[in-house]
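Colleagues,

Please find the record for the three-part complex below.
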Amino acid sequence: MKSEPDVFGIDHLQKRPNKTEPWDGVRNYQARNMLRDQMKKGDKAFFYHSNCEEPGIVGMMTIVKSGYPDATMYNPESKYFDPKATAENPRWFRVDVKFQKKFKHTISLKELKSYKQLKGMPVLQKGSRLSITPVTEAQWNFILKLAE
DNA sequence: GCCAACGTTGGC
DNA sequence: GCCAACGTTGGC
């Protein structure tokens, strides 16, 4: 799951009450579908810092609440406001994530790209803009070892 | 700051 | 339904 560290980075998450925060503001249908249909309580996710000096994976977190409507879509004051969203037909979803661990060092995009074991991982593909992408169990375990 | 990639919008 | 125009993302 990607976020810009200047906007909301892993340090922000760690400082939140209960180290938990709704992952809201996702306004892309593919990512929405994953939030809504696939991400379940207890699932794990990597925290990825994007659009920054050293893009890469900086830690891990746990999904503590599975997909539910992202209320920011109803708030005209929010930059995530969506006038077409209704209570009957909520367009956008979010999950709650909880900080689990910050890695001692960033596993940079550059490093991640260098491993043939991670070839094909969606987040590493050129032009990948999706803010939420799946990780296989093998990829997950491989990356965790890099973090040691 | 540049620009490639790609999603969305809207005219037709 | 096509596709040009436009906006956004994000690495570099």
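Chain A is about 25% helix and 30% strand.

Comments are welcome before we finalize the supplementary table.
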